[in-house]
Design brief:
By secondary structure, this protein is an alpha/beta fold. Helices cover 28% and strands 20% of the residues.
């Protein structure tokens, strides 16, 4: 995109995802943040909500209403599930681009959304239009999109970790198991007893067993890749981390591949992808290496004894798994260089 800066607004700017969006957007040379809304902090400067933004952004949080970002050309919706579907149609009627970070537009099927999120969909006609916001798989469609549904954080790591294997027919599609560990920021900023320091520190727990609502999102995208129904077993875990997701994925091989064969497959599949780092043999991702970044690191190894491949992915749930992924989609939509505003390495140590 050339000429004047793209004017953007953030609806729901006072959550963790809103804060991370601002961190990326304020460092992006091609955009100007012109409006913010917050249900909880209306009238307060955003720098009072997030002191890390002092001297970087002097905007006040406006009333929590889509009309309040009318001067923006693009609106990011950092809203809870079930809330975005009431806001996106208003913005689209106003001629705005929309990048939604909730689950409200991720599903092709209205019935699946309503089953897993237990609410009628307010604008099912938009499900056919929304583009799934994973540039590695949908870059061409993103270039002409006006409504983008950013993937969930767990599905981002799982889908990117499995896509080459599924697409190339390397694994038994009925054998996929995904175990993922997330930091506490993935649950959002609102108080929750289970996220209090004394409750989750020095403890790791599984939750959403055999019923987490990111499961059908993974199955939808993997099924679309291969043109056949895919079912996965997915178990998320909460660890005493602030941010990060580590996914360990298991699947049975249909032929006797070795590790080098599959690393070559991943290298070809993700060749030229700016935010996918396929690690060399015997190197495996760690959340610390991607914290604060938009990178997804992938490592793998074939277990010849069991005939399985093990794939490990790591990403920042607030970065590539949410706000960073959203900004990457914006870059594709508006013709920016895809890496713009996103090339900082992770926090280390």
């Amino acid at each position: 995109m050339k000429g004047a800066k793209l004017k953007v607004g953030v609806i729901g700017a006072s959550g963790y995802t809103g804060s991370e969006l601002l961190r990326f957007l304020l460092g992006h040379p091609g955009v100007e943040v012109v409006a913010l809304t917050s249900e909880s902090y209306e009238g307060l400067p955003i720098a009072e909500v997030f002191p890390s933004l002092r001297g970087l952004c002097d905007l006040e949080c406006r009333r929590h209403d889509p009309e309040e970002v009318a001067e923006a050309e693009l609106a990011f919706l950092a809203l809870p599930h079930r809330a975005s579907m009431g806001v996106a149609p208003v913005l689209l009627r106003l001629g705005k681009g929309v990048v939604d970070l909730s689950a409200d537009f991720r599903f092709r099927s209205q019935a699946i959304y309503e089953k897993w999120y237990q609410v009628p969909h307010a604008c099912p006609e938009l499900l056919r239009e929304a583009v799934y916001g994973l540039p590695e798989l949908y870059r061409r469609q993103l270039r002409s999109a006006r409504l983008v549904a950013v993937p969930g954080c767990y599905p981002t790591g799982a889908i990117l970790g499995l896509a080459p294997l599924v697409k190339e027919g390397v694994i038994d599609l009925g054998s996929i198991i995904i175990n993922a560990i997330s930091g506490a920021s993935g649950a959002g900023r609102k108080p929750d007893l289970g996220l209090h320091f004394a409750e989750c520190n020095e403890s790791v727990k599984a939750y959403g067993i055999a019923g987490h609502r990111h499961t059908p999102e993974m199955e939808q995208e993997l099924s679309l890749l291969v043109g056949a129904e895919v079912r996965v077993s997915f178990t998320p875990h909460l660890a005493p981390l602030t941010r990060g997701i580590l996914s360990t994925i298991y699947a049975n091989l249909v032929s006797p591949y070795d590790t080098q064969d599959l690393l070559g497959l991943y290298g070809r599949f993700y060749n030229g992808e700016p935010f996918i780092r396929v690690l060399p043999p015997e190197k495996f991702p760690e959340t610390k290496q991607v914290a604060g970044s938009n990178f997804c690191d992938i490592g793998l190894k074939v277990d010849a004894r069991t005939g399985r491949v093990l794939v490990v992915t790591a990403l920042d749930n607030l970065g590539k798994g949410a706000a960073g992924g959203a900004v990457q989609c914006m870059n594709v939509m508006y013709g920016f260089e895809e890496r713009m505003g996103l090339m900082a390495p992770g926090f280390f140590p």
